[in-house]
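REVIEWER CHECKLIST
Item 1: Sequence provided? yes
Item 2: Single chain? yes
Item 3: Sequence as submitted:
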Amino acid sequence: MRVKILIILVIVYILAAFAWLTFSLLRYSNTDYALKNDVLQAGLIACTLQVMQQAKDGNLGETDTVQYYLKQLSLNIEESTLQGFVSERFDNMYRAEFIDVSPKKRIVQLRINPESLEQLKTNQYQQRNIWLY
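Item 4: Structure as written out by the authors:
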């Protein structure tokens, strides 16, 4: 009788330990995803600042036909040079997009590459599935 109770207690203890381990690994996966997403957001700010500095230094080409704006800052840049700088410097993690405001004015928007976000979500999903099964 005592042996049966002891075996049942040991089994319950082991199951509780596995449940706690699974829960903690899932929580770790969510925390890891949130931190990597925050790193991408911080990198976007760094990308914006570096683009502003490169444009100020005149390293992103020049054009006289169109005026570009980034965060209310007027820039004299060339589109292809800016896109090349962003993709090379930041390993294709960010994209430069241009929005026409008027025939001679465009807004520059720097965004996180959707492929980077999709890869991050896929990694989180794979980790979650590994720990659940």
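Item 5: Key structural point noted by reviewer: The longest helix spans residues 2-57.
Item 6: Recommendation: ____
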